[in-house]
Amino acid sequence: NGGLAHGLPNGATVRKKLMGYVGFANLPNQVHRKSVRKGFQFTAMVVGESGLGKSTLINTLFNTTLYPEKEPLPPQAERPSTVSIESISADIEENGVRLRLTVVDTPGFGDFVNNDNSWKPIVENIEARFDAYLEQENRVNRQKLVDNRVHACLYFIQPTGHALKQIDIEFMRRLHTKVNLIPVIAKADTLTDDEIVAFKERVLSDIAHHNIRIFQAPIYDNEDEETIAENEEIASKIPFAVVGSNREVRTSDGRSVRGRAYPWGVIEVDNEDHCDFVKLRQMLVRTYMEELREHTNDVLYENYRSEKLLGMGVTQDTSVFKEINPAAKSAEERALHEAKLAKMEAEMKMVFQQKVQEKEAKLKQSEEELYARHREMKDALEKQRLELEDKKRRLESGRPLTPEKSVSTKKKGFLRA
Ligand code: GDP
């Protein structure tokens, strides 16, 4: 009841329970409508030796033929000797929701005799995408940010059934702080169920042993039981043992399914008893796409950005102490934030100065023009004055006016001739 009028101290908030209808319960719908209108951008990267089924899986995941079927290279063909980075985008739509999907492929990874630096061009590409985003953020006009950062990286593990290889460990070690890693066991139909269970265990223990952080599907306990159970189920399947196929095959009971046909039967891609494909799709698309985007922005990109700012000379206390000292940490965050603000301010100043200079140049030009006109008029007047004076002198001395004035020039010329 008029808390403000009763002189509440500065900063105190009056909490009251509103009874009437205001309408903000519709806020989630507004957000929803807006994001639907804007559409979504998602970039996934696939990494793994060639032939592990990367293109097939992407086609299967998004139900498109993003990648045409590849012709196997003839044995004598010259193979490239470096990892290249290729990206393809497609706009896909489902129930009126638009998704601009970009898939970044890394052909050549792990395909050479010496694969020591296979991870390098990939890290560089991911960082270049961060840089491009950072550059947009630092612009004065930050209206439309295009987000080409990699939101998830599917890492294809060869289904050896043994352990991770050196190249797998090296890649994940180099990349886990830059991208959401989602390891998948490729071509899981080549392993038996027991082999898959044992291999998954081995892969997870290798990952833990090397302190590699893969993307953890978060589970929120404020959600309903069914959702929690579903999310736990997804988390329990990592690393996903997947099978890809874009072909429809016929099962023994006459159904037509996406799968791979073998003499002993059909492996169904979309059957959860046969492989983890459905769980991978749920994680990547249905449940955690926004989470992957958020984690990329809030954690991975943010770390990269702060390191970059540090590298650019924003001074900071780098003692171990600050890691465990929340006050120092927030001071550091504030310093980074201030550095960013300062940069923006400097840029705004620059633009302002430029505008002022332009204006000054314009003013100077019009001043010069005015001056020139003034001079012209002055000259004309002076000329007139001289002419009048001349006239006056002639009249006074009784001589006729200038010949030009009395006889036409033409005639005079003619007479002379
Ligand atoms: P990429 O080089 O990693 O992109 O591999 P591709 O998607 O081109 O697949 C290479 C070959 O493996 C093709 O002949 C595919 O039909 C086959 N393939 C793809 N996925 C699977 C799978 O899950 N299981 C099996 N057995 N073969 C697969």
TrEMBL record:
Chain intervals with Basic and acidic residues compositional bias: 382-397
Feature: compositional bias, Basic residues: 408-417
UniProt name for this protein: Septin-type G domain-containing protein
GO cellular component: cell cortex; septin cytoskeleton
Gene Ontology MF, one: GTP binding
Lineage: Eukaryota, Fungi, Dikarya, Basidiomycota, Agaricomycotina
Stretches assigned to the Septin-type G domain: 38-311
UniProt-annotated stretches for the region Disordered: 382-417
